[in-house]
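To: structure subgroup
Subject: Chain for Friday's discussion

All,

I'm putting the inputs and outputs inline so they're searchable in the archive.
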Amino acid sequence: MNVHPTKAEIRFQDRWTVERAVERAVRRALGTFDASASLGRSFFGGIAAPGLSPQIIESAVLAPQADDTPLFQSATSAVEPNGSSAIGMADPAERDDVRAEFTIPPLTQLRRTYIMFEHEDGVVLIDQHSAHERVLYEAFMHDLEAGSADSQRLLLPFTLSLSALELEAFDQNKQYFDRLGFEVEPFGGNALIVHAVPLPHPRFDAERCLRDTLSSLTGDRASAAAGRHEHLIATISCKAAVKSGDVLSDGEMRALFVALRDTNLPAHDVHGRSTIVQLAWTEVDRRFGRA
């Protein structure tokens, strides 16, 4: 319809049709494990091909084990009392069939930062912080859109003393904090008192998350109102996710593995960084002079 003189912008008469088409194309391209970074050839093979993506990640169901934990539940899965993972996209019969055939591979934590497992075509590394960040982002977005986030009232409310810029950042985003399960009100001057918080996982430090998030949002003028909630949730997800250096139990690693599988864009975190890196055996053999 109209082209900017410097070719920096094109305006369409029906912009939403174009935006939806672009979004669908991007999701198709990035919403598979084949979009993850690779050293050597990519061996996930995308959605349609056999291999890790459909057989182990996307269709795998946790076999009941005593050490499984709901620490890393995704928005589309819930850990049942017996430790199995109930996947919303499959009916019980499908889950039983998959559980009988597939199990999660043995997982090992490296440097308290990466989760590693062996695949028939290579070695896979998962960045635990980036993966959990992706899981939380999609779970928070689901809660925000549903308008029904779980919240926990605090026995002892805590106060936050903020700078003027931090208080302004909170005021700009208050409606989204409310919808995410935070119950916060003014407490005089630049102070806030927090009565209730969401509980996305047992390690969640609500006070630290709020402080770090508001600090990161100060002076944020770039986010238009339409995209402000996405920026806020991306920031909260980053601050709330497990960190590099956190020791994860076997059950926590398994739960994170399954929760990442259930996300829409598992190969990338909210910053666009890789959550998964593939190292093909052909590349390992080449490095050792075997190829």
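Points worth raising on Friday:
The longest strand covers residues 152-161.
The longest helix spans residues 128-146.

D.
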